[in-house]
Amino acid sequence: MKLSSSFNSQAQTKMKLSNYLFVFALLFSFLLVTSAHTHEDFLQCLTLHSEKDKPISNIIYTPSNSSYSSALNSYVRNTRFSTPSTPKPRVIVTPLGVSQIQETLYCAQKHRIQVRVRSGGHDYEGLSFVSPEPFVILDMINLRNISIDVENNTAWVQSGATLGELYYWIANKSRTLGFPAGVCQTIGVGGHFSGGGYGTLLRKYGLAADNVLDAHLIDVKGRFLNRKSMGEDLFWAIRGGGGASFGVIVSWKIKLVPVPANVTVFTVRKGLEQNATKILHRWQYVAPNIDRDLFIRVILTGSGSVQYGNRSVHASFNSIYLGGKDKLLPLMQKSFPELGLVSEDCTEMSWIQSILYFTGFQNGQSLEVLLNRSLTVNSYKAKSDYVRQPIPEDALEGIWPSFFEEEAQSSVIILNPYGGRMSEISESATPFPHRAGVIGKIQYLVYWSEEGTAATKKHVRWMRRLYTYMAPYVSNSPREAYINYRDLDIGKNNKGRRTSLRQASIWGTKYFKNNFKRLVFVKTVFDPTNFFRNEQSIPPLSF
Ligand code: FDA
Fold first, then answer.
1. What is the β-pairing status of strands 91-93 and 135-139?
2. Is cis: bond before 478, omega within 30 of 0?
3. pLDDT tens for each residue of 126-167
4. Helix-helix angle 351-359:163-173, to 10 degrees
5. Which residues 6+ apart lie within 8 Å of 191 measured at CB?
6. What 3-state DSSP class applies to 300?
7. Among 61, 75, 485, 511, which one carries the catalytic annotation?
8. Distance from Cα 146 to the centre of ligand 1, integer Å
9. Ligand 1 neighbourhood includes 163 CB (under 6 angstroms)
10. pLDDT at residue 305, rounded to an integer
């Protein structure tokens, strides 16, 4: 059954491919005769094509508008990409509905101006709001409706909503339903879901993308598609393959998951003098194999410096258990006694309060803070790795000196355990391939507040040194990486429309392993001219 349905889907896809190639040839000849246009032409086109009762003037920002800067910068989450030399969009469009997205895509293609889609603006390399080519930002900020269906445990959420808004409205309807997505409340649903999206429920329920039931997408031809009309290939691709390569995802239907009325959280901090290295080493054996109701991540930070002495590294074991502490304590005593967890370390609270706890708010804080969209930002550079073999103790010890270097004063390494539900989902079920056999994911982050390229170079060099040091201890062939922790160091596309498959495979297989090939196939069918492109978008096959 499975074989024949997959064959039918491939045959249908091939038919679609030949139809698209024909359309592609027509479109391409049209584009060749279209001379270079300016953003004024683009704006005129938008005015001409907008519906009379929906004038576009209210949703357009150009550099001559006084509110252009705030429209641009309110959702820049990394000041590395808000310098005077950062390329700026010619226009920011903030659509109020589907038709305005369709008009934007039509006029952008007609006038050969690139579109970058932004939902929450958290892209680590700023790809949703910076481009080396003339571009417009299609900002989803006005598209953030959320409707919760408690009876069926589902919700529709628009891409411009934040995770905080989603969690808030779920909690508003039910305290025993949740959703397995990320920790930071300001993250946009659009980028997060389309790149996978994980949070404290990943060992129990997998990724956000694993819990998507349907989606509404506008493709390069301006068609409004749902799961049925886009077909299973495209629906597969946007659940972990990064939305930016395939179209504009307007909204998502998600499956809400049960959470207990009371969960337990704790954070136990150990310094090197309290055996942090040994406990962390042991954590690698325990955390991915323990009861899937328990999620224990580790946050590593350094204190002191070579210059000032008093050096130490701290490992904070930051955890949520989907149950009461009466069950958690014996479980920890049996499986992870080295951590020495005691009742006083534990706090019971509702699942929604645990969201605030992980975001760093005090217990008892009003849930309204989840609706706050502002975020204090700095410059930062991040990278990711996957661990498939436990990192030996002496290799962990080799990391610690890097925390004491001058550039690392604001640096952090976060380890997230996998296992549980993550190991049960096959590598090819979605484009996100990091499943069975993964002990956990590492995220390296370094922040700075100094301005200028010298500061950026210095900190990025520090990050690259650490990444080089880690190479023998993490996954290889490929050295896996998480697309939602975007890293242009691992490779990027050529400027313009064409990049060879071979070149793109360098970074593509790191994010997607073998799924990269299927993503290329889907891209070739749905966007053969590579209109939706960025430095790490999936390239179509060229003929
Ligand atoms: P943004 O708007 O920048 O979009 C990211 C990418 O998706 C861009 O390429 C963009 O063009 C594309 N895109 C966005 N909306 C689209 C749409 N509607 N249709 C098509 N393409 C679209 N991750 C995680 O898994 N768990 C976590 O806990 C965290 N925590 C975290 C904290 C902080 C402070 C940051 C900065 C980031 C994270 N992340 C994370 C990473 C986060 O999941 C990742 O950056 C997401 O892509 C962000 O989605 P946004 O919509 O906010 O970004």
1. parallel
2. yes
3. 999 999 999 999 999 999 999 999 999 999 999 999 999 999
4. 160
5. 119, 120, 122, 123, 128, 243, 244, 484
6. strand
7. 485
8. 18
9. no
10. 60
